[in-house]
Structures are given as C-alpha cells and as structure tokens.
Records
---
Amino acid sequence: MGNARVTFHQLIQDSQEYGSDDEHMVSRVFFSLQVDGGSYPILHVDVKQTVGAEFENAPLEVGPPHGYNGPFNHEEFRNAVEEYYRGLVGSQGSAIRIKGGAGPIRMYNNRFASESVVEFPV
C-alpha cells in the first residue's frame, strides 16, 4: 500500500457561491494530490461548519475530494484538511486569529493562499 501526498494551496472561507447560508458556513480547500504514481493537480474539497458553533471545537464536515475517485484514506485526509483550515483561521491561525470573547464574527469570501504538504497512507 502506498502513500498519498497532498499539497494544499489555498482556502476560500465561508463562500455563498459554494453553499454558505444562515445555517452552515461552507468553505473550499484547493489542493493537488500524488498517489499510486498518478498526479492530480487541480482538486478541491468542501468544508462545512455550523454557523454560531464554537469555532475552535465544533466539528468540521469534510467532503470527498472533487476530481479524484481512486483509493484514499478519508479519515487521514479529513484530519489534514482540518489542521490546514484551523491553522489559517482560529485562535492559532496564521491568517486570521480569532480568540475567545471576540463576539459573534462572520466574514465572507476570505481567500488565503498558503502552501502546506502532508503525506499519509492510502
């Protein structure tokens, strides 16, 4: 069994174009994938979070990668997407840092270009 190499390229957070509404915040993570000798350069995954939920601890719903249908370890991928997302936005975020007591904040269509690479078993 081989490894998957995911290179994250950018995050578009809370986009109405991707399905955000008053109940759910939908963001999209763009990445490339190398697996089993194949290279898939332009993929994305939708990330969904309940509006008003505790930002740092509320679960993120990570969908399947759009544009790739081969063998994949979704649990490892979900963990990597969540780490990438929360590494950009949240109390430890490098792009937007949101700390407790900041009040209800909602920002739409934020684009963050930040490359990060992760590998995990397929």
---
Amino acid sequence: MKYKLDFSPKLDVSSPSITGALVQPAAGTHFVAWQPSSWPPVPAAVDEKFVFTLKRIFEESILGEIENVMADVVKVNGDLEHRGHVIAIALMCALTAISSYGYRGQHAAKFIRRHFRADYRPHADDIYVLYRNGFMHDWNLLKASILPDDTRVKREGKLLSFGLLDFSQALVDATQDFLDVLESDAALKANTLKRYKDLQEAAIP
C-alpha cells in the first residue's frame, strides 16, 4: 500500500491551537492538519505529493484523533461501554468529512459502496440514513444499534448493527483504499481538488 495510514505519534515541538483557526496569522506557519489555511497551495493536478498531504490531514485531524479517544476510553474503562454513543457520532462525522472529498450528494453512502469492506456495501444506504442522519439530526438510533466491540456488520430481521471497533477499522481501511485509487480516478481527482480548494479558501481570512 503506497499511502498506508500511520497513527503513530508525530514529533512536533511547536504549540499551535489544538483545533480550529490558528491564533497567529496563517502566513509563515507550518502545516497544521486541522487548519486549511496552513495547507500547501492547491496543486494543478493530483499527484503523489498531494495524496500524501491528504493522507496526513486524515491521519492527524480526523482518524488519529478518534483512535486516540478510543484508546483512552479502553484504557480507563476497559471497553467502549457507555462511551459508544459519542464515539459513534465522531465516526459518522469522520465518514461524512472524508467522503465529501471524493463524492457529491449522499457522499457517505457512495463512499461506503465504493471503498468499504464487502460486507458493509449492501448496507450503505441504511448506514447513511439510520446512522449518519440518525446521529447527526436526532442524536438517536431508531432502527439500528451499535455494539462496544468488534462485531461485524449484520442484519437480524429488520435491525442493522455493528461493533464500533469493527466500523472504525472498516473506515480506516476504506480511507486507505480511497487514497490508493485517487491518482487513477478522474472523477475522484476533480472532486477532491475542488473540496480541498473550497476548504482552504473558506479558512483564509
């Protein structure tokens, strides 16, 4: 895998804001994954350097943050019991954010169908409606459930469920797949450059 995601700690002796807009002006600052105003300029085309930049954004400001929270919860609590709701919401936000680079209109479902493990793909629309929309708009799951472990996605009768650890790993693997195919897919390249450009322009004062 050319663009293998790596969540190991990165050495950084600086002390920027932990998230959101930078306290100091963006000019002259180094790369900060969660602040688009510090990202490298939009390239003319998707190349290896750009994909590595995107990889770093996903690692440091999205997936790595969630990995750290889950690790801390397991360390203190033993498992994700009684913490799963908030972690699941973060995972659905991550799915939405990452999928918005490559796809338009119900991008989370499209991303699942294209990049997730095969057993998730038939449930793409339900995950979008029941989980992504359910959590984001209602704060509740109404016809679905989550488990605090690595249970694989399954449907029992009308009830869809999966373990948070399994979904988290499936999202990491899907993001890896997205990065690996990005250079060879014209539509993904165009959408991703536009999304990157839009975020960067929105962040620059």
---
Amino acid sequence: MIYEFPPRDEPIRQGDIFEHIPHVDISLSKLPVIMGEHSQILTTWEKVATNDDPVLAIVSAKPVNGIVITQDCDAFRAEDITLCEIRPFRTVERRSADLKSSPEKWMKMLTQQARINQKWFYLPPDADVGFTDKMGVDFLVTLRVLRLDLEALRHRRRGRLNDVALAHFRERVAEFYRRYPYNEWYPLNKDELKAYLKDHPGSEPYRWQTTG
C-alpha cells in the first residue's frame, strides 16, 4: 500500500509510524501528588504549581499508535518530537461510524471528506505495518516524546509513509495548523439560516441574523 519500511538504524523522519507510544492523561483538578517518600495527596495543579520546582505526580498512560509530525530537520536535533495519535478510522471520522462495507460509499468518504475535513489523515489497512482495519491520524491529539527516548524505541517503528503519501501528509499537517476557524453560517440570511439549523441545531445565530 502506501507504506515503506526503513532499516531500524535509519533516523526518525516525519511520517514514521510507531506503536506503543505513551498517551498521558492528567487531571488538573484531581492530581495525585507524591509528598515525601511515602505520602500521597489529591490536590489541584493550581495549588502545587506555585513555583518552578518539578512536581512528582501520578498520571495515567496508555500505549497508542502514533505518527511523527515533526519536520525532518527538527527530528534530527530537537529535544522533543511530536506525534499525532492513530486510531481506528471510524472513531476519528464520526460520519463513517455506521458506514457499510460498500466500496462506493467508502470511496466517497475517503476522497470527498478528505478534502473537506482537515482534522484527520486516512491510513489504509496493511498487515505489514500492523493495521488490520482502516485507520486515521487524529491531528487534534498530539503526543510529545523526548527525541532520545524515541530514538531508543526505533524497534517500535512499524513503517513510514511513502513519498506520495508523505507529500500529502505534510500538506495536511500544514493545512490543519494554518486553517482559519470560522462559523460557516455567518453570511446566511434568515431563511437560509432557518434551513441550515435543521441539520445544525446547535449553531448560534449572529445578531444581524435575528434583527431587521
């Protein structure tokens, strides 16, 4: 498919796919903190972050798949490398949750929605890279790993995007971070807004759409 498989000792590059990367979950309102050698308290981040000293806390971490979004030049020398989480496509793109196995319907989803939705990148199944189902890169979920630590985990690199897919991936990452967020219904008149709200009931009208 769209993957290639570099030697283990090859440097980390954008588009590299890793397994078992830690996704750390932390609650700022309920933070277990280690005090002294054996005591533990449940507090808030605001209470312990009163100075620049490190805090020893207990956090939850689960292993996930991830893909490197850090550019190659930074991946060679930066202190940290950023990845985005990879999950089953049906959980990344909600419109596909109930989609049947029709090739035509999937074709439309993976071509048309890929142009519209800038929040994900599609990864097709490939047993060699460890994907038994359609997968998606969720640009909203980032993972930060120390570069030296990730280099020590290169045996966990399952593959990387080939040249065609990588060029597209780079553009998608750029599109995601430079996109201008706006409410698409702002220029609609009252009648157009009324029709729009049938499919988007949570959209809040603007002042000029409720007066005059």
